[in-house]
Design a protein that fits this description.
Blueprint: H1 2-23, H2 28-34, H3 41-69, H4 73-96, H5 101-128, H6 133-159, H7 165-180, H8 196-204, H9 210-237, H10 242-258, H11 260-270, H12 273-292, H13 296-324, H14 330-358, H15 361-386
Helix pairs in contact: 1-5, 1-6, 1-7, 2-3, 3-5, 3-9, 3-14, 4-5, 4-7, 6-10, 9-10, 9-13, 9-14, 9-15, 10-13, 11-13, 12-13, 12-15, 14-15
């Protein structure tokens, strides 16, 4: 019963971080303008990108610190409180000082660097729990999915009340997440049992992990692309307000969140290759199709299909990581997968924003979708080599 309660509380922290983060997406162009930016596309691109730069820069530091201390809960609380302070500072900044937009970006970087502590260590605490990794990671996946699925439409409606309202709500949500940690009692189970050198050496013996890492990178690249380019495209091409834009993003996030568990069960039964390849091919075509859709209705239908096919491939890709890693290396292997994913999100924001700025929205959609299709086609022979013919589950290399 203790693990069940702890699992629910940690999942609540994960949900809070993702919900707060996605609240800002539907009207990010409105927000950066209110914060003093002179352009919308470039400023929105950098505003989203520097948060993920903060994630990448600080995630390892948070993890190493908690390992050394033998505790995670105080650092989860510190990350949530720091993130809340960052959101509040961004909202209050225009009223208390006149600073160039580069100063806003520095503050945004610091907000990201603190927020990742709450997210990453809550996820790691879930991995520390007993009761089965499938159940623990299922709780994390559900929290991530619901946070993103609800954050977009709620954020869109909050922007209708004012450009800084999502920032204040995000701060309140993270304060609530920090409050949840007062109910937690978690510890690091024997953190020095496997020296890092041995773990890294083991991963070097398994270069096949680079295959799911590549899919994690490109999949998150498309997510970052939608967070920036998709948002601005819907607002400019179809004259949508922040509220309607949030609903368009939810058309992707909702099926992506709700279908991951059943799609994961499907991949357990039929193997990883089919869901990864078919899901990625259809996902890439769907991304390109959204950019070519002539009406908002067809674009919305495309977003639903992209969410469905994303749910088909995502759990199979993560299961492939688990199957390829040794039993003593899974934590580091999944950390590597998440690091590649965060880097992909950052590239999706910067690369997608640059493509849209130089060549146009539709060309940016075609290139992004085409990258997903190309990776799926190139990966087919490699995935077939990794598949276990007998039971369809990715094999563990010896």
């Amino acid at each position: 019963m203790g693990d069940t309660r702890t699992r629910a509380l940690l999942a609540g922290v994960v949900f809070a971080v993702l919900f707060a983060q996605v609240l800002l997406y539907p009207g990010v162009d409105t927000l950066v303008t209110a914060l003093g930016a002179r352009t919308q596309l470039d400023a929105s691109m950098w505003f989203l990108a520097v948060e993920f730069a903060g994630f990448i820069a600080a995630a390892t530091l948070w993890g190493a610190t908690s390992d050394a201390a033998g505790r995670r809960t105080p650092f989860v609380a510190a990350g949530a409180l720091g993130g809340a302070a960052g959101y509040l500072a961004l909202a209050a900044l225009p009223a208390v000082a006149t600073v160039p937009f580069t100063g806003v970006l520095v503050l945004r970087f610091l907000q990201g660097a603190t927020t990742i502590g709450a997210f990453s260590l809550a996820m790691t605490s879930l991995m520390d729990l007993g009761g089965g990794q499938g159940r623990n990671m299922g709780a994390a996946g559900l929290a991530i999915g619901l946070g993103t699925a609800l954050g977009a439409p709620v954020g869109g409606q909050l922007y209708e009340l004012g450009p800084f309202v999502p920032l204040y709500v995000a701060a309140a949500v993270l304060l609530g997440a920090a409050g949840l940690t007062a109910l937690l009692t978690t510890a690091v189970p024997d953190p020095n049992r496997h020296p890092m050198g041995r773990i890294v050496a083991g991963l070097r013996r398994r270069p096949s992990l680079l295959l799911p890492y590549a899919f994690g990178f490109i999949d998150r690249l498309t997510a970052g692309f939608f967070a920036l380019v998709g948002t601005l495209y819907f607002r400019s091409a179809f004259s949508l307000g922040p509220g309607a834009t949030g609903l368009m993003l939810a058309l992707f996030f909702a099926p992506f969140a709700l279908l991951q568990y059943p799609m994961g069960v499907v991949s357990d039964r039929i193997g990883r290759t089919g869901p990864v390849v078919v899901g990625s091919l259809c996902y890439g075509v769907g991304v390109a199709g959204v950019g070519l859709a002539p009406t908002v209705g067809l674009a919305g239908a495309g977003m639903v299909l992209v969410g469905v096919f994303g749910a088909l491939m995502a759990p199979a890709t993560m299961a492939l990581v688990t199957g390829l890693a040794g039993t003593t290396e899974r934590g580091v292997a999944m950390a590597g997968f998440n690091s590649f994913g965060s880097l992909g999100f950052l590239v999706g924001i910067l690369g997608g924003g640059t493509l849209a700025d130089v060549y146009g929205f539709r060309e940016a959609f075609l290139v992004t979708g085409g990258l997903e299709v190309a990776l799926a086609l190139l990966a087919v022979p490699l995935l077939l080599r990794l598949e276990r013919p007998a039971d369809g589950v990715g094999r563990v290399e010896s």
